[in-house]
Amino acid sequence: DLTGPENAEYVKEALEDLGHAKLIEVGGKKILLFQNPIGSGGKGEIFLGITASGKMCAVKRYFNPENSIGKESALLARCEGSPHIIEQYASDEEYLVLEFCRYGLDALNY
């Protein structure tokens, strides 16, 4: 939820860093997608998005979507409700919209 005062500075910095945005529709949900990637991997790139309800989300766009999105979407659907797995908001043939997690595994101190 981006409406809380504790997120104000983070959101302001993110908006300044991420530049241009476009409105996309994924699985019937409107997402404001910032066009500069915030991460990438071997299968695609991750972008910051904001849902119509104001929630920050991660939007994954695969380099080869026909081989990956369906598999990951199905796996996340099976894990739905787990407090240890991020929530899937929407998906289509190009994008996978996920709950935004500000910290990655590298932030954990073992």
What are its keywords?
38% strand; alpha+beta; 23% helix; 110 residues
Global structural class? alpha+beta
Shape: globular
| Poorly predicted regions | none
- The ordered string of helix (H) and strand (E) elements is HEEEEHEE
* Count, helices: 2
Average residue-wise pLDDT: 81
Q: List how many beta strands DSSP finds.
A: 6
Task: Note the main sheet.
Answer: 6 strands, antiparallel
Helix content: 10-25%
Strand order of the largest sheet: 1-2-3-4-6-5
First-residue to last-residue Cα separation: 28 Å
Radius of gyration: 14 Å
Write structural notes for this entry.
There is one protein chain. This protein is α+β, with helices and mostly antiparallel strands and 110 residues long. A hairpin with a 3-residue loop joins strand 5 and strand 6. It has two helices and six strands, in the order H-E-E-E-E-H-E-E. The chain is globular and about 35 Å long. The chain has a six-stranded antiparallel sheet, covered by helices on one side. The mean pLDDT is 81.
